[in-house]
Write a structure and sequence with these properties.
Pfam families: VTC. The protein has 148 residues and is α+β, with helices and mostly antiparallel strands. The protein is built from three helices and six strands; from the N terminus they run βαββαβββα. A hairpin with a 4-residue loop joins strand 4 and strand 5.
């Protein structure tokens, strides 16, 4: 079966309530639970319509969509992945996030410790900084474009 083409009109995003970066100063974004779902693209307009009364979109310089790429780092034996998958309570995750639209990159170290909220110290990276001593699980095009 061949791939179907699908175009999506994202103009509905312009009708959402919006907030800027200054509004995030008092937000507690580091203490949250994320749930991820797969959704057929054809259902996205209906979902956005249902979410509109309950959501506000971050507007950065007129942009409501942000392009970023993550590169996760692990040991050659994938210890970090296996610890997470097996529910180990004391574990670590190392990630480099590149914001292609803003020429920014951060190295995040997420520590999940028993009886403590997850800690996520981060280090701002220069877009030209190389992390050759670490082994990425995958390379992303946006990070390559930033010189990583």
């Amino acid at each position: 079966m061949g791939a179907r083409s699908f175009s999506l009109d994202l103009n509905i995003l312009n009708s959402f309530n919006q907030h800027g970066l200054d509004d995030l100063k008092n937000a507690k974004l580091m203490n949250r639970v994320d749930s991820k779902f797969l959704l057929p693209m054809a259902q996205l307009p209906l979902l956005l319509k249902d979410l509109k009364p309950h959501c506000s979109l971050l507007n950065i310089n007129g942009n409501l969509l942000a392009q970023y790429e993550n590169v996760y780092y692990d040991t050659p034996e994938f210890d970090f992945y296996h610890q997470h998958h097996n529910g180990k309570l004391n574990r670590v995750k190392v990630r480099r996030r590149c914001y292609a639209d803003h020429d920014l990159a951060f190295l995040n170290l997420k520590l999940n410790l028993i009886n403590h909220a997850p800690k996520k110290p981060e280090l701002k990276l220069s877009p030209t900084m190389k992390l050759s001593s670490l082994q990425p699980l995958r390379r992303s095009s946006a990070c390559r474009n930033l010189g990583h």
